[in-house]
Amino acid sequence: MSCVFCGIASGAEPAHEVFRNRSVVAFLDRSPLFEGHTLVVPTDHVATLADLHPDAVGPYFGVVQRISAALPAALGCQGSFVAMNNVVSQSVPHLHAHVVPRTRGDGLRGFFWPRTRYPDEARAASTAAAIAAAVDSRSG
To answer: Which structural domains are found in the chain, ordered by start?
Structure first.
């Protein structure tokens, strides 16, 4: 069985990337809750958080933290929502954290997540570029 996230991590599948290093890649969700909804995945195939090697936990969540911190500067949102499913409700069986931009009154309630689409590839690309620039500005 092929894994779409492994395809993105290897570069074989297209994605609007916002961050990449040797062990982690972050890219826009194709069906976002809100513009800027980013998925953070290990580049190696890991099915669930329980399967992530203990030495990889810190570096992985460090990237999740960087993306979360960059969203307000990139998108003008007030904060973020970070979530992860393991097996149940995990639409792709490859570990991934959802980092979702949030603004008070945005309509997101509980666990009902109405998905949307980017109006076009140009909008997705410009959103990814804004987040990538904000992530880069926070490195150091």
So the answer is: 4-138 (3.30.428.10)
